[in-house]
Design a protein that fits this description.
Organism: Solimonas terrae
Order of helices and strands: EEEEEEEEEEHEEE
Number of domains: 1
Family: Belongs to the bacterial ring-hydroxylating dioxygenase ferredoxin component family.
CATH architecture: 3-layer Sandwich
Strand content: 35-45%
Number of helices: 1
Keywords: 2Fe-2S, Iron, Iron-sulfur, Metal-binding
Radius of gyration: 15 Å
CATH class: Mainly Beta
Protein name: Rieske (2Fe-2S) protein
CATH topology: Rieske Iron-sulfur Protein
Strand order of the largest sheet: 2-3-4-11
GO molecular function, one term: 2 iron, 2 sulfur cluster binding
Mean pLDDT: 94
Length: about 120
Amino acid sequence: MAEIDVANVADVREGAALTVRAAGRSIVLTRVAGTLCAVENRCPHLGLPLARGRIVDGVIRCPFRGSSFDLCSGANLDWVNAVAGLPLPQWSRRIVALGREPMPLQTFVARERDGRVYLEA
């Protein structure tokens, strides 16, 4: 696997999303409890960007439909529970999900070396 230089180590902060491009993809970099994490900047529900989503305790929430994902593992924690930040009643969530089943985020191996962040591509 090739490594791609994507950022300065100092630019990747705890609980903040840094968007970079690598291998033709938009990727979110952040730190969770000091660990460097990298996920695709694309919610699997509708493909909308996640970078503006709120990050709390290592979880990013899609700003469009409210799905939540673990930033280190990519695991889906909650699927489609809001529209434009407004909570949805339980009965309407499957309708807004458009029949799509919960999916995880794609993750990437990120490494720090010599003050730089590298992603495996």
